[in-house]
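Narrative of accomplishments. A recurring question from our advisory board has been how the design workflow behaves on a single, concrete structure rather than in aggregate. To address it, we present the structure tokens for one chain from the evaluation set, followed by the sequence designed for it. No filtering or post-editing was applied between the two.
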């Protein structure tokens, strides 16, 4: 270590949105995958986005040369980037390395998306967020080596442009804690066992970053806050102590900031990091409290994450200042202001939202506004509280205005929720319902269906845009949608599916569509947030009490049902998912808000039933996503989340078959909660994990209908008949035959029609083959 390096800045953010203000990266990556641009053009687009980010953050007040600007770009996923950097590529992709053993961009993309018979890396949720990461596959024989120089190249790129930035890399403990055992690993193998082999590669990586010009590096270790991983908090803390003893002792490295966001850092991990030979620790003080004083802080910087990186509400600067003051009492050498997490979870800039009500906009802070609030607090830390008093007062006034605004509290909505009784959450005996539904629907063994959406083609998106601009009248647009629905229904009948969907052509997004039709929500024009890879979502803003002014889905469902004699699903998004995939008000318990949404959906289900729809799917893909990282908080969450689903569906008649859908999370810890939803049929992701969840379902005694997904729709691969058949064979071997359904992992919105039709033909053919074998 040398003395020439800067002290840590007084304010920083832990990461920034990387898809571009107008999703430029998404378009470039997808154009590259489609072959319409080359790698050089893709790299040039990415470099321009990085330059624009640095310039914008400097404009907002972060320093050009003090490491306060994070270098947090990724083409696809930050966990995958770290795995690629240390050479943790599954054996099935080993041939993709170049002659020097390096892993290039194409190889990284192939592992992320799959190719031919080689399945993509599994995908699951990043802690309790709606971001999906790629799960590394690590075994006893995984050969770690420094296999990519991308992190160092980005630091050097910034340096050439006059910026000293702080590279952000997922840390070694979190990388292993989030990994799964590679195929062929011995039973009971834990990737964390490979920590001592991995850390020397991180030492090499740190040296490369230092050589490129980095003065600080940020190693993200959110695994240290979680109590929901395979390793216990004590085991994770011990791993951190071992890893950072080695990294801190490295002779040639940048200074190290370890960031532990998304919840309260565990007490053992706090002690371990405090005594480790590192220079700074970033704490989430939005979802965690100021920790107790411990030994070892005298020479360290503490970054107080007092600006929430995960929601869009304007920060309470007075409360943030109080938390920073409490942090200063711990005796660290310096306290800095920061965000609680990376800002990748929020959109770029409220100023882009010209259509938002100005009063609502004044309550909001997107990434740029959050960075500006951090800069304000940093000024206060340097110059004293008095220097920022005007900004603190303005934030407090905005919060007070939000509390008193019309619509935030609706007396009629609150009275309805207050009058709920236990019977409103109970639908009655499942076996009696199943008998009534069998008689009503007359479905075959292993009924086939899809999850809801069909591909959102360019024609659909263009028609929606033209209607929005007034170039298509309401009648013309409705006619277009009816033609699209008719085409999708005819396709499903031709394919031979048993329970059909209308394809959701009228829906821009499974949450936004409902938000646009419920009171208490607002939607944005440019509020895009990365979900996974090149995919982005535009979360709605739930700002007030929720109610349903009119039916939402009934007309489309009735029209679709009129085109076929087969059962047609009514398609709704569940209350937990509407909350999870929106930016939700933080001024009342989530459970209260969920019940308001559930009551609106309950009315929608009643109207669907009255219109003759006998199968209704209420999607809850986010049920596992919101599970708190701390075990003490989980029972209360599961109580209100399950309760809100039951409130929405309990009014349905016994002969109405209620489906739900869950995807891309680790479900073993919530199997009991899934059963408690009391849905008649549950479809669940299983293809990318090759049916791992089937065993958990079987051993849990789950008795209702279950559809373990047999087609991974998050990959462009077309699964072969034999591949689907093998998953079905496993399902019928371990689960009650009359309860097994056949379906993809998720909706088909993001796929193209050629691959969709080919995959569904294989799904139907594989089902027919299994049925024949069962009848032989």
């Amino acid at each position: 270590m040398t003395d020439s390096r800067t002290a840590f800045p007084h304010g920083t953010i832990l990461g920034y949105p990387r898809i571009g203000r107008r999703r430029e990266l998404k378009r470039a990556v997808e154009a590259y995958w489609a072959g319409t641009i080359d790698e050089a053009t893709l790299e040039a687009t990415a470099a321009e986005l990085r330059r624009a980010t640095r310039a914008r953050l400097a404009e907002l007040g972060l320093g050009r040369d003090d490491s306060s600007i994070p270098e947090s770009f990724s083409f696809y996923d930050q966990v995958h980037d770290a795995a690629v950097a240390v050479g943790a590529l599954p054996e099935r992709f080993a041939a993709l390395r170049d002659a020097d053993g390096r892993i290039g961009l194409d190889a990284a993309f192939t592992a992320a998306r799959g190719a031919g018979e080689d399945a993509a890396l599994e995908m699951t949720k990043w802690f309790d967020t709606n971001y999906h990461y790629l799960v590394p596959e690590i075994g006893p024989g995984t050969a770690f080596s420094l296999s990519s120089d991308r992190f160092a190249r980005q630091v050097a790129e910034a340096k050439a442009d006059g910026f000293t930035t702080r590279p952000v890399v997922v840390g070694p403990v979190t990388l292993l804690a989030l990994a799964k055992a590679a195929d062929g690993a011995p039973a009971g193998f834990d990737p964390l066992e490979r920590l001592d082999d991995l850390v020397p590669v991180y030492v090499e990586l740190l040296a490369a970053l230092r050589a490129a010009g980095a003065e600080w590096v940020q190693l993200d270790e959110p695994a240290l806050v979680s109590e929901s991983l395979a390793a216990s908090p004590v085991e994770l803390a011990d791993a951190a102590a071992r890893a950072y003893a080695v990294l801190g002792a490295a002779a040639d490295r940048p200074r190290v900031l370890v960031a532990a966001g998304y919840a309260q850092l565990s007490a053992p991990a706090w002690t371990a990091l405090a005594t480790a030979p590192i220079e700074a620790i970033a704490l989430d003080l939005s979802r965690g409290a100021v920790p107790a004083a411990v030994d070892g802080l005298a020479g360290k910087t503490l970054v107080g994450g007092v600006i929430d990186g995960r929601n869009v509400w304007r920060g309470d600067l007075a409360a943030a200042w109080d938390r920073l003051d409490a942090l200063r009492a711990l005796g660290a050498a310096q306290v800095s202001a920061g965000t609680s997490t990376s800002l990748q979870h929020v959109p770029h800039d409220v100023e882009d939202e010209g259509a938002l009500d100005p009063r609502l906009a004044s309550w909001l802070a997107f990434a740029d506004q959050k960075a500006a609030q951090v800069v304000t607090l940093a000024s206060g830390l340097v110059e004293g509280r008095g220097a920022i008093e005007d900004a603190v007062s303005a934030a407090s006034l905005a919060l007070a205005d939000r509390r008193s605004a019309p619509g935030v509290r609706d007396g009629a909505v609150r009275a309805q929720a207050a009058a709920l009784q236990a019977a409103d959450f109970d639908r009655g005996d499942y076996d009696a319902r199943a008998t009534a539904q069998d008689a009503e629907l007359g479905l075959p063994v292993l009924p086939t269906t899809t999850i809801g959406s069909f591909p959102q083609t360019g024609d659909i998106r263009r028609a929606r845009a033209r209607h929005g601009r007034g170039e298509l009248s309401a009648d013309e647009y409705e006619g277009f949608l009816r033609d699209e629905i008719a085409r999708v229904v005819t396709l499903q009948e031709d394919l031979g599916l048993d329970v059909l969907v209308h394809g959701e052509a009228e829906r821009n997004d499974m949450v936004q569509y409902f938000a646009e039709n419920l009171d208490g929500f607002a939607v944005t024009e440019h509020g895009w947030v990365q979900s996974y890879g090149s995919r982005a979502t535009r979360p709605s803003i739930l700002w007030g009490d929720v109610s349903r002014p009119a039916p939402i889905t009934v007309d489309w469902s009735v029209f679709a049902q009129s085109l076929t004699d087969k059962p047609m699903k009514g398609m709704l998004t569940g209350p937990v998912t509407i909350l999870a995939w929106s930016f939700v008000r933080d001024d009342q318990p989530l459970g209260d808000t969920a019940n308001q949404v559930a009551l609106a959906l309950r009315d929608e289900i009643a109207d669907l039933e009255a219109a003759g729809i006998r199968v209704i799917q209420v999607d809850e893909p986010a049920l596992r996503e919101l599970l708190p990282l701390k075990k003490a908080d989980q029972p209360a969450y599961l109580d209100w989340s399950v309760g809100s689903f039951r409130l929405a569906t309990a009014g349905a008649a016994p002969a109405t078959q209620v489906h739900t859908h869950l995807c891309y999370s680790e479900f073993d810890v919530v199997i009991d909660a899934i059963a408690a939803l009391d849905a008649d049929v549950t479809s669940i992701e299983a293809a990318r994990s090759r049916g791992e969840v089937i065993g958990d379902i079987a051993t849990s005694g789950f008795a209702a209908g279950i559809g373990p997904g047999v087609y991974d729709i998050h990959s462009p691969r077309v699964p072969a008949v034999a591949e689907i058949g093998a998953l079905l064979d496993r399902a019928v071997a371990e689960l009650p035959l009359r309860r097994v359904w056949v379906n993809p992992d998720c909706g088909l919105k993001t796929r193209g029609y050629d691959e969709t039709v080919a995959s569904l033909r294989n799904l139907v053919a594989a089902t027919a083959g299994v049925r024949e074998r069962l009848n032989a």
